[in-house]
Amino acid sequence: xxxxxxxFWREREEVLKRTKQLRLRPPQxxxxxxxxxVRTELQNARxxxxxxxxxxxxxxxxxxxxxxxxxxxxxxxxxxxxxKRKNKEVRKVEKELHKQDTHLEAGKHxxxxxxxxxxxxxxxxxxxxxxxxxxxKTFIVLSIGNVLHRFNAESSCFLLSPFNRLRTFAxxxxxxxxxxxxxxxxxxxxxxxxxxSVHPTWTTITAEFVFSAVYIFEVxxxxxxxxxxxxxxxxxxxxxxxxxxxxxxxxxxxxFLDLGKVSVLRTIPRALKIITVYxxxxxxxxxxxxxxxxxxxxxxxxxxVLSVLAVIGQNLFxxxxxxxxxxxxxHSNWTYNDLSNYDNYEGGSSDFDFHKFIxxxxxxxxxxxxxxPLQCGNTSNAGVCPHGYICLKTSTNPDYGHTNxxxxxxxxxxxxxxxxxxxxxxxxxxxxxxxxxxSVIFVLLVFxxxxxxxxxxxxxxxxAVVEQEKASIAEARRTEEEFLHILDVIKKxxxxxxxxxxxxxxxxxxxxxxxxxxxxxxxxxxxxELRLRLNGFVMDPFFDLVIIICLILNCIVISxxxxxxxxxxxxxxxxxxxxxxxxxxxxxxxxxxAMNPYDYFQVGWNVFDSIIVALSLLGLVFVEFEGAHIDLxxxxxxxxxxxxxxxxxxxxxxxxxxxxxxxxxxLTMVFIFxxxxxxxxxxxxxxxxxxxxxxxxxxxxxxxxxxxxxxxxFRILCGEWIENMWDCMQVSSPxxxxxxxxxxxxxxxxxxxxxxxxxxxxxxxxxxxxPKEKVKNHLIIAVDQIKRGVAWTRAWILEHIxxxxxxxxPIIPHYKVVNSEEDKKDYLGLTSVTSDQPLSESKACGxxxxxxxxxxxxxxxxxxxxxVEFDMPExxxxxxxxxxxxxxxxxxxxxxxxxxxxxxxxxxxDIDRSQGSRxxxxxxxxxxxxxxxxxxxxxxIIFIILLSSAALVLEDIHLQQRKLVQMLLDKADQVFTFIxxxxxxxxxxxxxxxxxxTSVWCWLDFLILAVSLMSLSLGMLGYSELGAGLSLxxxxxxxxxxxxxxxxxxxxxxxxxxxxxxxxxDAMLVCLLVWLMFSIMGVNLFSGKFYYCFNETAEQQxxxxxxNNMTQxxxxxxxxxxxxxxxxxxLNFDNVAEGYRSxxxxxTFNGWLDVMYAAVDTRxxxxxxxxxxxxxxxxxxxxxxxxxxxxxxxxxxRRFIHSLxxxxxxxxxxxxFMTDEQHNFSIxxxxxxxxxxxxxxxxxxxxxxxxxxxVTKHSFEIFxxxxxxxxxxxxxxxxxxxxxEMELILFWLYFVFIIIFLIEFLLKIIALxxxxxxxxxxxxxxxxxxxxxxxxxxxxxxxKYFIDIKVLALLRLAPVTRIxxxxxxxxxxxxxxxxxxxxxxxxxxxxxxxxxxMFTFSVxxxxxxxxxxxxxxxxxxxxxxxxxxxxxxxxxxxxMAGWNTVLSPILNTPLDCDPDKDTPVGGDCVHxxxxxxxxxxxxxxxxxxxxxxxxxxxxETFNMYDTETPSDEDLLMFYKTWxxxxxxxxxxxxxxxxxxxxxxxxxxxxxPKPNTFKLIHMDLPLLPGDKxxxxxxxxxxxxxxxGDRGQMDSLKARMEEKFMINNLSKMSYEPISSTLxxxxxxxxxxxxxxxxxxxxxxxxxxxxxxxxxAGGAAAV
Length: 1660
Fold this sequence. Notes:
The chain is an all-alpha fold.
């Protein structure tokens, strides 16, 4: 790609917008068709050449004479082809020259040059317009809308000729819009019948008969009109028509065969027929198929990575999840003798069945509310069993036995669960309890691989979308250029009077029609004057500002609704709504009078306002009319003045209108999955529901009916699929369920991803740019006027104050309103002086104290030498000049200590430091200056920061029992604080207060040090255990943040992140506003309805039959019934704030099921919930997920990428996630991996030479790859508790593979000799072989003394790494792999920042929430008691998982926790506000880093690698080969040598013989004497191999640098032709010569025939 794909998409929007407006006026079209002079001038234009000759009709009916002309042309073409058979190249070139025109393809609209055909010729057979088909038996038909359809002129099914009335009638039916509408209605009706779960038999039979008849009739019409299969445009030649055949077969086949459940598959083709009805949907579906083809490389890599990770998980956790807490023998009937006899027990000598005992559910320990027993492990940090239970390995796995790593299939399934993040925190908990907390390392490895694979899928799909648009953009651009050319030619011959006549016509269009003129209200003069005054009032910017304030106040008022509301509040609430209704009604009336009705309703926003006002007034008239949601719609009016909100609404409209094809495909697939799922599994859920439900009641997620199936499919699209699949496997066939759920997961997510990306990129066009970037709206104008007024008022007040004081000519700063966005967004504030900055680089201001303009100078303060700025020198001289200035600065003296105001107020501070004792102070500052800027001083401070951070790790919950450690940590804290204090004092002396306190990073160091000093002071005074002291000790967790300014990569990522904050804050406000609307709607729907009567003794809700409402529950409480309470769930919609928290859980799909379950069980306010009594409330949450999550995230990411795009353009395309050193490392890694394998000379020895030929063959490499794949399959065959025979077979297979690898090594070492180790891949093979041999021979010793058995098993995976041999062979995989390598530096920077964030929040959580009361999910494996547990909590929350389990115990009230419990912090309750801020801030920051930055890094890397050019080795090879053909070093060779030269090159530039045809189509410029220049050849080969990527200038510069070619510009060489043009001339000359010879032969035969009779007569 020549530009970043964002630039390409923006350009696409502009080109397509212009192309759609290409139209010729009727006079221009008439001149084009009838003026021969115009056609003569346009004879070389591609579109104009398609027109018929001047004087002939454009559209001619297809008659028998037309068919005869076609047959005659075919006869002539056959004769010409017979003469050309000997010259294959001429035939190939002519075939390329005579291609079908893309403008006249079937299914496209007629080009603008033809105009509109006469109405009587629509749906009638017409002669061909495309010259390519004029010699073929085809004709065209134009339907309504000038859509072109092409048919074969052969007889349909050998019966119906093109002129047969029956066929003509069939064509008319096929192309008629009503027939398409009839088919669509039939399909939709059929879909409606398919949605019925239960219907009478007679209805089914009758409807099926009718639908089948319609589909058969459609197929018959298509076959009659097109023919069956003989011919290019027949019925079966269109793959979409195969769908009709499948529909007919599946409709007829069940009448003769009982297909059982297979018959439900006929649902799929019938629903897919929706796509075939409209051509636009078909093209979108074809584009989706092409994008899937582009994913081939990613799919191969994904399968490989998943397989390797699955085998790793299989070896690490095989059988581990079977460990459970089993009742000890002392607490059961199990005696010690039974335990001692267990090892020798084989089933016949003892009555005690050990296996039955440990597998009995009665003997397992269960946590409250859990269906699976408590898991445990025998490692040091695994889960432990409670007292009375022992950890033993049973025979069952959790989750119906599906969650395990005992086989490859199960391991792969759970790996897919981890990668899709579906309840992965539960799986991590199970793994940690069974195998220890080291399982997090495996999960982290899976996440790293999975996230990169998903990012690759994202990038490849995005690139596929761009590639699909490239052809259309190129065609649109060519069409636009030719249109402009045609228009210029026509305008030259147009008279000037014709143009003048058009202007009044355009003006007349602006006036309203006659029947609407009465709505203009043009009455008397008084009325006109009143209108003018009102118009000035309404159009004033402050009028809009008042309306906006009213809208905001209205939004605030309706968001104040809550439960329970007092009577006084309700009495105030309702009149307030009435007041706003009247205000907006008056506004509408004023605008209506000021603008008149006709002009008023010409504005879309006015129409929307009037509808809302009308509905609000209707709600006042009818009391039963619900007006709450109407008032909520007023919030949408803010989009009129808020550009980003306006953009959000345009996103939704774009998905509905512009992307309707993709949206329709997605909805069709959702419908298909819903109907198929219901028809496949509805009977199974009814018959076997007891397998998944203890009370034999259908669970909430089932496929018994259509609506529940749709909700379940939607949940799968949201990423949660594994639990529903387990239930499905219990009630139905596991293989069918697995296939169904995986297909929904893969295809559904692929469609959603395509829609998301296309929506994201389609909104980048300039037509969707926010209005504020084009024209200032009234809100901005009003705000600017207010700012100017405030500034003037402030200046006036200050002037009068100084006048009253008595001072003359006061210096009043001038405050200027900055209008330039670039001035306001000058890269950031964090590029100021850092605490580790070389202080000599600080810009000295001397003693000029009047230059200070701001207290915090974020933009002007220079940065450290190590810090990367985006300011790039334009040339090397400027860079050298900057280096010299930096060296000079190091010798400068420190800056002044104080600011300008201090020197003005205290003149004695401004002293001369060059004399006397003051010189000692100056020298002392200079020494401090030198110390502070020394690199060892920075290294020492970094070391102290790391030590202080490590000390915080030890302050866990167990610190109170470790008195010695606590004492050492207290002393260390004092030492660290003292060192940081010395650092601060040293920098104060060296920098001065002025410079120190204008740095953001120095302020951060100062605040953290102040917290430490205050904490130490309170500790010395004995107040450390009070609230203030504990809070200050907790804030020490911010100490690791001091490392931000010390690492260059962290600063760079953080600077980029902060630079995008303003844009993303705007998008965040839009998201919050959308969420506010849904929260208010949730309050109106669910406030006060989530309460329930709870039985504390039984720990369950009362049934509605027992307690129906709150009154009955309170009666039970009043009757002193023990343990009864009227409770509310923690997640509710009683007010807007609670609604926000509930929606956050729904948006993150974490704990969202509890909210939805409570919503669908609601009835009326203060009533006991009933199971799924309000099931259609699922629609509310589905709507929120689509609008509040899908579209808002699209807007959020769009703003983020737009900010990165602006930074990229502003700073010259420089990478903003890597430092210069890292970027150079990335480029060097690219060159390293792109380097070819070293060539090895062929040995002289005959035996070695034969072995050399063997091992260097490509087939030998393929054989070894096949062996490695078989070896991997062998590793996959291992299972838990496999038989001895299986173990023996696997052992010998393992031995055979080692022998094969050893033989390969011996063959290569003999053939390649010492060159074997010159190839890194061979070194890798040798290391792998060494590991295998050592592991095989010394496995017992290694297992016993050195290595764990699981690690030893992992070593057997080493040969799998040899699959890397395939990377150089497959270009797609190579590009993906190279993209990963090139993005590693940027990923390292982001991961380091993420780790620092996790570390800081982990320490803060450990210091704040270590003593929080444990709950069902907040337990010994998942808490803040230790640093390791805190990091695990932060790790799970990074993926938006598990945060509700952390927040839930933090929000405990004194009813749920004990505030008086004896803990170091006083109780196990914490302040909920602290927890909410802690969780939300971490979720926001981690989301920004993980989702946005990672995606941007991979996209940027792919964009960087897309500029692929030949390497330096390729250029050197090209130049050496060129020298062999260019002996005189003239850089040109004869064209006749080009074929040999291209064949002599090496890969990748080599084009082997026969290459003449390829070289012709490279269209190389020919110089005088049929010479070829080397630059032209290199550029053509580069474009041929690597693609034309716009890098020719850089390639030319590289050639000049490498080879010192001085005449590359070819100024002395003017091309006279090209290879393609020369071949075309030769072909044309050949054709003309043959036609002329044929003509001479015919003339000679005619002369002989005329001479022969005369001679005969004379003889007679």
